[in-house]
Specification:
single chain, alpha/beta, 16% strand, binds 1,3,4-trihydroxy-5-OXO-cyclohexanecarboxylic acid
């Protein structure tokens, strides 16, 4: 079994299902965890799935992923638009990084149109609701598999 895919979610995503469901959908974060684990298992991976409202805790987990993950999926939520420190932590990773958003931030307010995280990400999945997470896990797994065959 390869190292797990880390799936990290940032602030306010613990409120999924009740927070602006017209934007973020009705799935809870627990629903999304199950979907990620199921999708990853089908691809031969385990998932470490965590959420925090605290920037430093997310950074600690990104640093942990340097040692323990085969790839990282991250929905940085609001910190994506603000956190240079999170970007710096991500830049220290050698593993593939998939940035993930439920909504399509590029189609929303101006301040959401770019993220610091994108400067470190291998790729980006956004706009598909909970499915964005599943697609991000699939992309991460595919990148890991591809790296092992070259
Ligand atoms: C989000 C988009 C961000 O702009 C926002 O701050 C979030 C959620 C998304 O998943 O669509 O909290 O990352």
């Amino acid at each position: 079994m390869p190292n797990p895919i880390y799936v990290l979610s940032g602030p306010n995503l613990n409120l999924l299902g009740v927070r602006e469901p017209h934007i973020y959908g009705h799935d809870t974060l627990e629903d999304i965890r199950v979907r990620c684990e199921t999708r990853a298992a089908g691809l031969g991976f385990e998932v470490v799935f965590r959420q925090s409202n605290h920037e430093g805790e997310l950074i600690d987990w990104v640093q942990e992923a340097r040692e323990a993950a085969s790839a990282l999926v991250i929905n940085p939520a609001g910190y994506g638009h603000t956190s240079v420190a999170l970007l710096d932590a991500l830049k220290a990773l050698k593993q593939p990084i998939v940035e993930c958003h439920l909504s399509n931030p590029a189609a929303r307010e101006d301040f959401r149109r770019s993220t610091y995280v994108s400067l470190a990400a291998t790729g980006l999945v956004s706009g598909f609701g909970a499915l964005s997470y599943e697609l991000a896990v699939e992309a991460a797994a595919g990148m890991v598999r591809a790296a092992k065959t070259v």
